[in-house]
Amino acid sequence: MTDRALVVVRAGALTTVQDTGRPGHAHLGVPRSGALDRPAADLVNRLVGNPPTAAVLETTLNGCAVRPRSAITVAVAGAPCRVAVDGRPVAWGAPVRVPAGALLDVGPAVSGVRAYVGVSGGIAVEAVLGSRSTDLLSGLGPAPLAAGTVLPLGRPSGVHARVDVAPQPAPPAELVLRVALGPRDGWFTPEAVDTFCTRAYRVSSASNRIGLRTEGPALERARPGELASEGMVLGAVQVPPDGRPVVFLADHPTTGGYPVIAVVRAADLPAAAQAVPGTPVRFVAVRRR
Fold this sequence. Notes:
It holds the Pfam family CT_A_B. Keywords: ATP-binding, Hydrolase, Nucleotide-binding. Residues 27-289 form the Carboxyltransferase domain. Helices cover 9% and strands 30% of the residues. With 289 residues, the protein is mainly beta. It has a seven-stranded mixed barrel. Strand 13 (201-203) and strand 14 (211-215) form a beta hairpin.
């Protein structure tokens, strides 16, 4: 039994292991996966002295609790939340030392959706196709955490940052997504395209790591029938038969048969990871593909 490990005490609603993902395997039907809020994941790795490729924990809404078998340095960022060690409040957004056997409790998100927990040495579960990320769609990578799960840790490779609190953006009060129209905007009426670019939508509670679903005005097709399945990319805005746009996130399928009206700029996707249900959404067309 290694002493470099975390024991999961409380798994939370959905806590997964994530890193930079599996780019380059779409032709094999393997999604990219990886942390939805990459800047937050990168930040916690920097704070604990890890390289950016180290695996972290991604929690959803109500956090998690873990107990290390040896002393570790941790940092929590992303969705603001209460962080405690053996019941004593500690800093959020800063490196914290956790003694062996102590309980690290990452509480529910005060705002936003996903918190990220970086641990010195990184989460060292077995890599699959070059990544340790959990992929909810394909099932690759480790299963979502459950109480009693033991997560091996790597050896620390750097010195943790010396900061009080690292600045980071607040979760969005309004989610503004810049898009390039196309490639299938011609499948919709001009009025529908105008609606897409000018009307407000809301984040649906049915959103997950696969896609951010929206509620709002339905987009009317200009042509009937089905589109032959074609490749899907991160940020693609697909419109299913109900007419409500879906923004594909990290665990999205690699092909799809519903038309893609636009593609979201990659720089805007981390904010989508922190948009709670009910958050207003605006799609802003910046160019045509």
